[in-house]
Amino acid sequence: MTTSTPTPLAALNAHTGTDPVAVLAFDLDADANGWHQLLPAGAFSAVDGRPLDVPGGQWYLDASIAQRLIAQAEVAANDLVIDYEHQTLRKDENGQPAPAAGWFKQLEWREGSGLWIKPRWTARARDHIDQGEYRYLSAVFPYDAATGYPLKLHSAALTNRPGIDGMQALASLTASDLTSKHPTHQESTMNELLKKLLAQLGITVQGDAALTEEQQTQALAALTELKTKASTSDTLAAKLADLSAKDTTPDPAKYVPIEVVSDLQAQLAVLSAQHKTGELEQLLADAKNDGRLLPSMEPWARDLGKKDMAALSAFLDKAQPLAALSQRQTDTVQKPNPDDPIAALTAEEREAAELLGKTPAQFAALKAEQAQA
User: What is the reported pTM?
Assistant: First the structure.
């Protein structure tokens, strides 16, 4: 079984002053909002000359590297610890407890200044700081020996020593959460999973390259969008559940059953058909009476009216009345005068008179004589 090469571990103490190595020294005095500087920007080294295993002898931190450290802290389940004198690293060695002085999860990059954190101090630690019993804030971070880039933040500590125990002692500790220079199988699996998750967000990472600042921005924006959509989905689901729980029985004062509506529609259709039929018959009767419609055209006119009442009405409106059709038979044909014997002759009697060689008057007289005999 092979063992992985331990990742170098750096522990830095920060303080203020005119010391030539003040670039690494930051006092515990916070800014107005309670933020403390944890690591400086650019290239930096420890007061004892570390890192000795990095070409050029300096660590390096810029905005891109800092954003990776910030992202790691944000997605971590637990806050990062601030202890006393790095006891979290030493507890396996000395068997002493490692009480927390504070916790932090909020980090931010300040261009030209470095990486800042906003600790939540315990009451005991706050009292130590206020009384001046602890002055320095020391960072602990694994780093890449080839580049000097910090790989992640492990913890921080309150200390009174701007230069702590050497690199060798710290690197030999076996804290369970320190990363290795050569990732374990579990880390490789997590890296592959992270790549797949990033791919789902439309971000492709080549090999083991760190995310660029642009990729980190894209990933955070995509996660924010997913969170917003999830929140919207939860809201809609809650509204739907609320609506489902409410009484859905319709108000009888506002709604009627569909069966009643259908019955009313059927009755209206019958009444409408009856009305149209009566209207058609009246239109045909009027047209025949005033001579606008020949009797022979009545069937055609009735069929047209059943299909298109407007078309029939338009036709009859333009039709010219025929006087011969508008007058009654009794008005145009003179009725025979019962006192006039000639006028009283039928067509057959007139024909019989002509066959006998008599005039209508003679035939009428002969008819009268026969009637008196």
Answer: 0.42
